[in-house]
Amino acid sequence: MQSLVKLYPIETREPSLGDNTGDLDRLKKVLVGYLQGRNPVVPFHRIAPLAEAFRQSGFKGFAVVIHHPGGPQLVDFFAQAPEALVGMALDLGTTHLEASLVDLLSGKILERAAVENGQLEFGADILARIHFAATKVGRQTGLDLLHERVMDSIHTLALELAERVRLKPVQIMALCVSGNTTMAHFFLKQNPYHLCREPYIPVVNSPDPFSASDLGLDLHPAAIVWVMPSIGSYFGGDLISGIVASGLDQEEETCMLIDVGTNAEVVVGNRDWLIACAGAAGPALEGGVARMGMRAGPGAIEHCSIDPESGKIDYQTIGGAPARGICGSGVIDLVAGLYLARIIDIRGKFKANQPQTEGRLLEQKDGLAYVVVPAEETDLGEPVLLSQVDIDALMRSKAAMYSILATITNQVGVSFHDLHRIYVAGAFGKHISPRQAIVLGMLPDLPLEVYTQLGNSSLAGAELMLTDETVRKRCRDVVCRITYIELNVNQEFMIRFSGSRFIPHTDHTLFPSVPFQGES
Amino acid sequence: MQSLVKLYPIETREPSLGDNTGDLDRLKKVLVGYLQGRNPVVPFHRIAPLAEAFRQSGFKGFAVVIHHPGGPQLVDFFAQAPEALVGMALDLGTTHLEASLVDLLSGKILERAAVENGQLEFGADILARIHFAATKVGRQTGLDLLHERVMDSIHTLALELAERVRLKPVQIMALCVSGNTTMAHFFLKQNPYHLCREPYIPVVNSPDPFSASDLGLDLHPAAIVWVMPSIGSYFGGDLISGIVASGLDQEEETCMLIDVGTNAEVVVGNRDWLIACAGAAGPALEGGVARMGMRAGPGAIEHCSIDPESGKIDYQTIGGAPARGICGSGVIDLVAGLYLARIIDIRGKFKANQPQTEGRLLEQKDGLAYVVVPAEETDLGEPVLLSQVDIDALMRSKAAMYSILATITNQVGVSFHDLHRIYVAGAFGKHISPRQAIVLGMLPDLPLEVYTQLGNSSLAGAELMLTDETVRKRCRDVVCRITYIELNVNQEFMIRFSGSRFIPHTDHTLFPSVPFQGES
Q: What is the pLDDT of residue A520?
């Protein structure tokens, strides 16, 4: 295994009148042998502690070298081999930060933890935070505060992870950060102003790795901080992580990667070519719009089914807790079930006077709502409802998703049936049932074995970056090779979007496995 | 000319929906073309100011790249080409700091200035300062204070030099520091404890270049700071500067470099081999011991001659001011003159009752003293004297110097007559009269055209480093190639030293051009 950070055993002769090499020069001379003649650079603030540690250890022990892209950096020295040399992989999500502690020597994942993004108080969505960044808050800017909050969240995670393995955050020698482009800007304290304004230009897509002390991170002061590169404002490092974690960039056959969230990001390609696009899918898929929608968490209905005859609902909540709401994957199951049970029509509209909905359809001031869980089964004192408004939002989201997939494959002259594999990434991707998504016409009608759920591939990519030196080059290659299509100004996408606002589609021959429930 | 710091004209297309490259990535992409495919690294704290300047300039202008040994660093951007891109070369002397402002684009020296080393209050000599470094002064260490003082002196110089060309210190993009090993430790704030304790080991001989902000220098925050490498405690970067400034390392024929001060440092060699040694020559040569001794400065007698018949003295003072003392070169002229006028004998002792000394020899409580300048010609109200004690000190110094030269040449099997050229460096070397030094038996009896006076070659080497990229490699090569002989433990040196304590030498056949004034 090739790691970003390595440990080299050092044994040298003690200095003498006959060999008056300087302490640090003595140590570096040994390392040059390990490093194929390359001279490791000692960052200025490491000169004194390194020379001191080397001398105190009697000129033998273990040197820590961090392999920066510009060359190796010698950053620490231990008399005894440390039990573990750890790095932290971080998925910098808009709502949650998820991190793992990685043993850099064995590549083993030691611990995982997550915290809520401390920036939430300044805006639930990215756009609100970009606007907040430009405001003045006393003597600080909004950007200062957003940066502080994300630093706090990272420090909380670092402390928790380190404590679990009886280490201190200062022993963390590397941090790899994977997040969307805006979160990367907040982390780097860069002005996000132009990210949401045409032509949507980041300050930087591929920042050079730097040291923890540059940013004031409470890790090892010389810990390498690597931010996964992004392709543009709407295609971030979390996606590059997804590409390397799925191995899409090395596949012989053409595959697809879908990351579903408020934005849907899609990559199609193989080891020879890669094409990407991103488009707004709407917040419905993250449970952000449905009145009873909620993010995946205890009590969220993550899966359900409806018996087409009786209309009886079976549901599962996360953690088996009393139902409190519906998360994205639950909404998809539910709407697919409503369609198969003929409770909604191909436009996603509730049908009146259906026997299966007896007692389950309520008239509300903004339209009909379906009782998913009656009040007595929840611990909210009210029922969990799915309203017509919620379904309409999902219809737009699923239409956007399918249109994105159809547009991008069409642009490269690939049919869905040419796809060897479709990787579904993201927290949402982990729970989604591909079959129900196909019924809705959100995902193409392909055999279920084509679909592979990746889980948090943003985190997985960051973990790989820490433990596999070849991933750096792969990331660089992906960034160079990938062609990004801007869908916001794409005419074909707009046309396809109109055709996709039906279940499963206006052209139902595209979905042969889905029963057609249109007017007969 | 190849410079450490370069300016590249940049012209890019403005970002658009069809080309959503990040601002910094756009700039770097152009530079990669200039840099033979190498990716310039942007130091973390330069990301925001660079991206801002690039955007403000309408995506065209001039990029500043610093060529670090690890690779190019992109550090600044200007809409208009700056009139000059300047660097500062610095000779970090024990008593004085001398600096020049260099135009990095043309290689021209714009200005020179000098200040007294602010550390003098903590000890005139290096050893006293090393001891002071280990003391506690309130909440600071002596090292903290020594470092602060030298930083203050550098800031004073930077401000003066910059103001003279209507710039600000923050516009200085590079600093090359050349000094002895201890001064380099004080500058880098490294513990000098082991420098003066057997086996005399530096913390570091070849520190990696770093950025001005790492050390808190008030220059451009990303200015490269380059410290000339040293070979050991007694052979510093000032000597490496001397070697590259003289070109000794590139000579076909064997040459010698002598830097005379409290320590005498000597290098012999050519483009194929280099050997070096250093030895204590005593402070006599820097005017540090003679009661009337003084460093070169206004009123110091820098040259003088004595008419052998009449005993009449002719002298010149620096700046033509009334005599106030004698500097090193004056002491050499004077003692040589005293010898040629038979006022002192071959042991350097005053002879009694010589007619030429009438009224010029005073009996003092520690022995005889010679009136160089009578009280009425000075503005001190007292005469300028040279005492027997002073001459004895010079005798030891000149003996040490000759023994060092004889030992090192003998060790490599080279005779003095094989030397194509002898470079005499150091502030002292600029003023010394080689002929009088030969009379004393301090320098070998060779034709005067063999001797070349270099002036401040420590500063000259630093200037070269800033303006000639090949000098880096030459310095690295010199450090690798040079063999250092420790004279403090050398038996041959001790034997030669005894034989050299006469004028010109016990073996006067070594000095055929010098009249033998021994007992007849």
A: 47
User: Would you say A219 and A170 are in contact if contact means Cβ atoms under 8 Å apart?
Assistant: yes
Nearest to B47 among A52, A200, A207 (CB): A207
Judge if ipTM > 0.85.
yes
Strand A300-306 relative to strand A325-326, pairing? parallel
Instruction: Determine the distance from the C-alpha atom of residue A490 to the mean position of all C-alpha atoms in its chain, rounded to a whole number.
Output: 25
Token output for A446: 């392909």
**What is d(CA A372, CA A305) in angstroms, rounded to the nearest whole number?**
11
At B111, give phi and psi (nearest 5°). Answer: -150, 155
Q: What is the dihedral of CA A122, A124, A128, A130, to 10 degrees?
A: 70
Q: Can you tell me the mean pLDDT for B399-418?
A: 94
Q: Are B437 and B303 contacting, i.e. CB atoms less than 8 angstroms apart? A: no
pLDDT at A12: 95
Please give the mean pLDDT across all residues of chain A.
Answer: 92
Q: Can you tell me the distance from the alpha carbon of A50 to that of A42, in angstroms, rounded to the nearest whole number?
A: 9
B203 touches A at CB < 8 Å:
yes
Q: Answer yes or no: is pLDDT of A187 > 60.
A: yes
The strands making up A300-306's β-sheet, listed across from edge to edge, are A313-317, A300-306, A325-326
Tens digit of pLDDT for each residue in B157-192?
A: 999 999 999 999 999 999 999 999 999 999 999 999
- Asked whether the beta carbons of A282 and A307 are under 8 A apart, the reply is no
For a pLDDT cut of 70, what percent of chain A falls above it? Answer: 95
Mutate to test the interface with B, among A12, A44, A67 (most CBs of B within 10 A): A44
H or E element in which residue B361 lies: strand B361-364
Of B238, B294, B266, B290, the C-alpha closest to B405 is B266
Q: Report the C-alpha gap between A339 and A336 in whole angstroms.
A: 5
Query: Which residue type does A105 have?
Result: L
Give pLDDT, residue A292. 62
Q: Which of residues 304-323 of B touch A (CB under 8 A)?
A: none
Residue B288 pLDDT exceeds 70: no
B51 to A210: CB separation less than 8 angstroms, yes or no = no
Q: Would you say residue B1 has pLDDT above 60? A: no
Substitution target from B13, B20, B186 for chain A, most A beta carbons within 10 A: B20
Please report the domains of chain B, with CATH numbers, ordered by start residue: 5-78 (3.10.20.880), 86-227 (3.30.420.480), 248-283+394-454+469-510 (3.30.420.40), 291-383 (no CATH)
pLDDT, mean of residues A61-76: 95
Chain A residues in contact with B210 by the CB 8 A cut-off are: 43-44
d(CA B57, CA B80): 9
DSSP B47-106: HHHHHHHHHHTTTEEEEEEEEETTEEEEEEEESS--S--EEEEEEE-SSEEEEEEEETTT
| CA separation for the pair B390, B396 (Å, rounded) | 10
Model confidence at B86: pLDDT above 90: yes
Average per-residue pLDDT for chain B: 92
Question: pTM to 2 decimals?
Answer: 0.91
Which chain A residues are closer than 8 Å to B202 by Cβ? 20, 22-23, 25
pLDDT in tens, A248-273: 999 999 999 998 776 788 999 999 99
Q: A41 and B70 in contact by Cβ < 8 A?
A: yes
Question: For B371-388, how does the pLDDT look when each residue is reduced to its tens digit (9 = 90+)?
Answer: 999 999 998 889 999 999
Average pLDDT value for residue range A66-78 = 94
List B residues 220-259 in contact with A (Cβ-Cβ < 8 A): 230, 232-233
Which string of DSSP letters, residue by residue, matches A121-152?
Answer: GG-SSHHHHHHHHTSEETTEEHHHHHHHHHHH
Nearest Cα neighbor of B102 from B192, B196, B4, B187 is B4
- Under 8 Å between Cβ of A134 and A142: yes
Which residue's entry shows tokens 């991206």? B51
